[in-house]
Amino acid sequence: MLVIAGYAIVLFSVFGGFAMEGGHLAALFQPVELLMIGGAALGAFMVGNSPKAISATLKALPSVLKSSRYTKELYLELMSLLYDLLQKARRDGLMAIEGDIESPEHSAIFGNYKGIMEDQHLLDFITDYLRLMISGKMDAFQIENLMDNELETHHHEGEVPVHTLAKMGDGMPAFGIVAAVMGVVNTMGHIGVPPAELGHLIAAALVGTFLGILLSYGFVGPLSSLLEQKLHESTKMLQCVKVTLIASLNGYAPAIAVEFGRKVLFSTERPSFLELESHVKQTK
């Protein structure tokens, strides 16, 4: 919703301001200029990216229209889930949670946290490292190093749509100049026409530069920035799991381990100590 509202403000501010100055909006309607800029940008996007990068970008685009799912409530769910699992493992031994992590869809513990179950990547991250902890063949340092490598891979994959859109946006002003130059060339070919018609041709050429800059900084560039912010949010979720599990491996009690995880969250979504404690007790 914010994306649509932002686009509406951009359009109203630019075109509304132009109209308030006495400009004729019809002069800005140049579909051929849009075809040259959009077509060139799309072609360059296809040339400069692998099929995997193109696919990742297309899959990421719908997410910009959705609000963030990483809310305080979801973080409370995550930390309550980790607390329940670690508490059971501490009370009954690590092998007691083997059934839960092998079949989370049939687990009574996981079944209490529908928000976590909907995120397959997060669910796999939790169960994979709990499985390694159960094996007992890796120490805390080795598991932490493996987690860091996976987080780095996750971040690099998530940056692909960010970079592809950023590069496309960066190129649009240049394609706007190309469209403007083509318009000037066309105008020079009609140098003998009446001044009124010549002015129309020059205006059409200048619109190319205007559209290239507007599309870059008003439409495509902000999408890249938004996807980057969503990537940081998804990575923060995994970092919370990492810190909590490593604290548990180092011998801290479940209540202290989830406190470690709480501390790494962004302040805008981080629950207070009392909120987390109250939520855990309510879940129990």
UniProtKB/TrEMBL annotation:
Which segments constitute the Motility protein A N-terminal domain? 4-93
The annotated topology with respect to the bilayer is: Multi-pass membrane protein
One GO term under biological process is:
bacterial-type flagellum-dependent swarming motility
Q: Name one GO cellular component term.
A: plasma membrane
Predominant location of this chain? membrane
Instruction: Identify the residues that the record assigns to the MotA/TolQ/ExbB proton channel domain, covering every copy.
Output: 125-238
Q: Does the keyword Membrane apply?
A: yes
Reading the lineage from the top rank, the first entry is: Bacteria
Which positions, given as ranges, span the membrane?
26-47, 174-193, 199-220
> Which compartments does it reside in?
Cell inner membrane
Q: Which UniProt keywords apply?
A: Cell inner membrane, Cell membrane, Cell projection, Chemotaxis, Cilium, Flagellar rotation, Flagellum, Hydrogen ion transport, Ion transport, Membrane, Transmembrane, Transmembrane helix, Transport
Q: Which family does it belong to?
A: Belongs to the MotA family.
Protein name (Swiss-Prot/TrEMBL)? Flagellar motor stator protein MotA
Q: Which organism is it from?
A: Candidatus Methylospira mobilis
Top-level taxonomy = Bacteria, Pseudomonadati, Pseudomonadota, Gammaproteobacteria, Methylococcales
What is the name of the gene encoding this protein?
motA
